[in-house]
Design goal:
Length: about 350
């Protein structure tokens, strides 16, 4: 008999984290539009040259607002993690991240926390591609960039059923947030993608929330040419680490063998074919030589495709937030406590 999913109590303590860097033109409007379902608002001044933190203190009277300052600029990821730590210290149960530039409608906050409240997810994120009729409002460069990044993120994170990985409108169960390896998560623009990889190592459930982004007069600090190399390297690194963690370190399965032998067969077939081509000096290859090169490649590709199907079906489905201890240190139980 299946038990009902674990749920939080009816009135969770919800905290909104707003990383602030050159957003003084919009941040007060964002704060004013955050609904009553939120009890705490953390504005993180990430060494902002415009003094975003002091600006909020001087002009905002909302009693929910706390201003946290980073002594030096850490980037969007570093600012969010500073906000997470502050929110966890005040007993928040759900942490929502909203940018301060006005692109993310604060009125959608309830949609993001509902799946976590209902025990259906550990982490929710926005998806601006869900309604195709709304995609036309997105600048072309962002549309193409997100499409490419989404595919790379699917492979590196293991969440094959989500899209728009760089979307920064997110919510996370506090217990899951407490178990994140903050010292190893990227602090700059790779933050959202790297966080998905870290969530997969925890086997957290991630779902998309349809939304529409608004593009007005805000100025983006993102430069594609500056971060492209970092994104490519980060995704390749996380992809390799995820395969090693999930299929060789934590567990060994038929998929592990398919991946290992598939790679060996493809590499062997390509290597043998290249070797024969080099030493024959233009002479036509025999049918046997062609088969000895082609057959391992064909078999190897079949194994790799079978592994890919297995990997796509291994996306986490059972939320872990309610099963994790509130204190990460409590996972370290000595032998006496186990008895």
């Amino acid at each position: 008999m299946h038990s009902a999913p674990n749920r939080m109590h009816a009135d969770p303590r919800v905290a909104v984290v707003i990383p602030s860097y050159r957003v003084t033109r919009h941040v007060l409007d964002v704060i004013a539009r955050i609904g009553k379902e939120c009890q705490l608002i953390f504005v993180v001044d990430d060494a902002c040259p415009d003094g975003s933190g002091q600006y909020v203190l001087d002009h905002c009277k909302d009693p929910r607002v706390r201003v946290v300052r980073n002594p030096k600029n850490l980037g969007v990821g570093g600012a969010v993690m500073t906000g997470y730590r502050a929110a966890l210290a005040e007993g928040a149960e759900i942490l929502v991240k909203i940018d301060g530039d006005g692109q993310m409608p604060p009125e959608l906050l309830g949609r993001f926390i509902r799946p976590i409240l209902d025990g259906q997810a550990d982490y929710t994120k926005g998806n601006r591609f869900y309604d195709l009729s709304m995609v036309r409002s997105m600048p072309t460069i962002r549309l193409l960039g997100n499409a490419g990044l989404s595919f790379m993120s699917k492979a590196s994170s293991g969440y094959w059923d989500i899209f728009d990985p760089t979307n920064g409108y997110t919510a996370i169960h506090a217990r899951v947030a407490a178990h994140l390896p903050y010292g190893r998560i990227s602090e700059r623009y790779f933050f959202e993608s790297d966080l998905l990889f870290r969530l997969n190592t925890l086997r957290a459930v991630v779902i998309d929330i349809p939304m529409v982004a608004r593009y007005r007069d805000e100025v983006s600090n993102l430069r594609i040419s500056r971060i492209l190399g970092d994104f490519l390297f980060g995704h390749l690194r996380n992809f390799g680490k995820r395969l090693f963690y999930n299929y060789f370190l934590r567990d060994m399965s038929a998929a592990s063998m398919q991946l290992l032998f598939g790679l060996l067969l493809v590499a062997g077939g390509v290597g043998y074919g290249a070797f024969k081509w080099l030493i024959q000096d233009g002479a036509p290859a025999t049918a046997g030589t062609v088969m000895l090169a082609a057959l391992p490649i064909i078999l190897g590709l079949q194994m790799l495709l079978a592994f890919l199907m297995w990997d796509m079906q291994s996306v986490p489905r059972l939320p872990i937030g309610s099963r994790l201890p509130s204190d990460p240190d409590s996972l370290n139980v000595d032998a006496g406590d186990r008895a």
